[in-house]
Amino acid sequence: MTLPGFVLGGMLFLLGIPAVFASLYLLAAALLSARPAAAHSSDRRRRFDVIVPAHNEEAGIARTVGNLRALDWPAEDFRILVIADNCSDATAANAAAAGATVIERQDANLRGKGYALNYAFERSLRDGWAEAVVVVDADSEASANLLNSIAARIGNGAHAVQVHYGVLNPNVAWRTRLMSIALGSFHIVRSRARERLRLSCGIRGNGWCVTHDLLARVPYHAYSLTEDIEYGVALGLQGERVHYADEGHVYGEMVTNSRSAASQRQRWEQGRFKLIRQHALALFRAAAGQSSRVCLDLGFDLLVLPLSYIALNIVALAVLAGLSAFVDAHLLQWLWVAAACAACVACYVLRGWWVSGVGWRGLPDLLWAPVFIVWKIFLAVAGSRATEWLRTERERP
């Protein structure tokens, strides 16, 4: 092999490692994503504090509280606690009028969803009334069986539970349908596979529960832009896995306009890359030192970047392999590696589409994926310096 061929081969190898690893991880998730058996019904005797973090949500908070009051659970055994955090509108008044217990918090320095949740969790622990806390975002609708699906897992020994988190408004635009497919892949496909393997499905920020006992042992000190993933990692490092309740769900409203979506996406990805830097090595050390499959998988899950980055990696591998073949024909084999990686990712995405519930209407929206990838690359290059909880503009009254 000539020196140029050797150099190009090395570059292809470096591009191929992350592409192959991520593709095989996603393919395994797709193959293991059969619907799990439903848990046995709970004894319906547990007490819950349903916590709703809200920052300037006056327009929709009453609707969310009304939805939660209709949960299929004895009314005397759950409370709805709205944490009105640094609000400058009528969020607190509207929540109280709808029947919630309101906790108001004002702190000009400690701002963010993580601080709001910690404040509410400490209140719940001090009260000592409930056995567990459940988090539902202020723009969401929960299934009637939310608490029953969680209680069934707690009855089987779980201390942390995540229900499915999906899209409330999937058919508003191509962007929301694409997001529904993405969450079907990320939340359903991966979570089912990890539950089947008795791993931690992680915490997804909406529709999750932790018992008072676990909260006392692993306090909620997650204040980053991706505080949900951060706390899921903290639980894993303490030997706790988050169980997945497939039959329960919360649906959150997703934005359709590019400006709001860009701001939201920048915050998510900025926070995720920071978590990789801060926690990936600790997870792999714990996996080796404690023989923890949960920590090993959480570390892998952090390293598997968002789908747009994986797609870009595969495209770069294919293009470089095609060009390198003019220098050394043997390097064309990397083109087949790229094709195999693309097939694995396609299986994962199609599985996500199938379980997302958007139906055949969602298939043409996958054609927008290249546009979405270019848009995300632009956002990554543009950068973001978000450091606190910023309210995303809602698109319905």
What value does the average pLDDT take?
89
CATH superfamily of the largest domain: Spore Coat Polysaccharide Biosynthesis Protein SpsA, Chain A
Distance between the termini: 66 Å
Class by helix and strand content?
A: alpha/beta
Strand/helix succession: HEHEHEHEEHEHEHHEHHHHHH
Q: How does this model look, in words?
A:
With 397 residues, the chain is α/β, with parallel strands linked by helices. The chain folds into 2 domains: 10-32 and 283-382, no CATH class; 48-261, Spore Coat Polysaccharide Biosynthesis Protein SpsA, Chain A, CATH 3.90.550.10. It has 14 helices and 8 strands. The protein has helices at 3-31, 61-69, 91-97, 113-127, 146-155, 174-196, 212-217, 227-237, 258-290, 293-303, 307-324, 333-356, 362-365, 369-382, and strands at residues 48-54, 78-85, 101-105, 132-135, 140-142, 160-167, 208-211, 243-252. It has an 8-stranded mixed beta sheet with strand order 3-2-1-4-7-6-8-5, sandwiched between helices. Helix 1 (3-31) runs antiparallel to helix 11 (307-324), helix 6 packs across helix 12 and helix 9 runs antiparallel to helix 10. The protein is elongated and about 75 Å long. The mean pLDDT is 89.
How would the blueprint of this fold be written?
Blueprint: H1 3-31, E1 48-54, H2 61-69, E2 78-85, H3 91-97, E3 101-105, H4 113-127, E4 132-135, E5 140-142, H5 146-155, E6 160-167, H6 174-196, E7 208-211, H7 212-217, H8 227-237, E8 243-252, H9 258-290, H10 293-303, H11 307-324, H12 333-356, H13 362-365, H14 369-382
Parallel strand pairs: 1-2, 1-4, 2-3, 6-8
Antiparallel strand pairs: 4-7, 5-8, 6-7
Helix pairs in contact: 1-6, 1-11, 1-12, 6-12, 8-9, 9-10, 11-12, 11-14
